[in-house]
Amino acid sequence: TYAPKLILLDISDINCIQDVAKEILNCYGCVDILINNASMKVKGAVQSISLELDKKIMDANYFGPITLTKAILPNMISRRTGQIVLINSIQGKIGIPFRAAYAASKHAAVGFFDCLRAEMEEFDISVSTVNPTFICSYHRQPAHGNWEASIWK
């Protein structure tokens, strides 16, 4: 067994994910199970949410998990073993009002990991998606008119 090592990662910061993956692989040599369980959401009408905030949500919920997965995947493929899990959301299957960016990012993630599942079968790598219904999350109350602060993490 290995002693646990705390490695901080902002999954929405795509530029640092490769370095973190290298640090993990250098420390432990491999990753047996990768659980992608990070998320960011905002509640608001489509016309009220900035494109910049839409992009941040897409980075955290789609590009972050796929970037981390792609960084770990070559090691799993070379060992012909591993399990990748995406903890997603029911909103990756259905959209509800006032959650357009969140639902879009979760739909994209489901599509990516569904394709990955089919591709990884030949390498004996298991890819699973979990789509729970609504869950209680940490939330910062926004100041009036401050949509940026209405992000759920």
UniProtKB/TrEMBL annotation:
One of its GO terms (biological process) is intracellular calcium ion homeostasis. GO terms for molecular function: oxidoreductase activity, acting on the CH-OH group of donors, NAD or NADP as acceptor. Coiled coil: none annotated. Keywords: NAD, NADP, Oxidoreductase, Signal. InterPro entries: NAD(P)-bd_dom_sf (IPR036291), Sc_DH/Rdtase_CS (IPR020904), SDR_fam (IPR002347), SDR_family_member_7C (IPR052148). The keyword Transmembrane does not apply. PANTHER family: DEHYDROGENASE_REDUCTASE SDR FAMILY MEMBER 7C (PTHR44668:SF2), PTHR44668. Belongs to the short-chain dehydrogenases/reductases (SDR) family. This is Dehydrogenase/reductase SDR family member 7C.
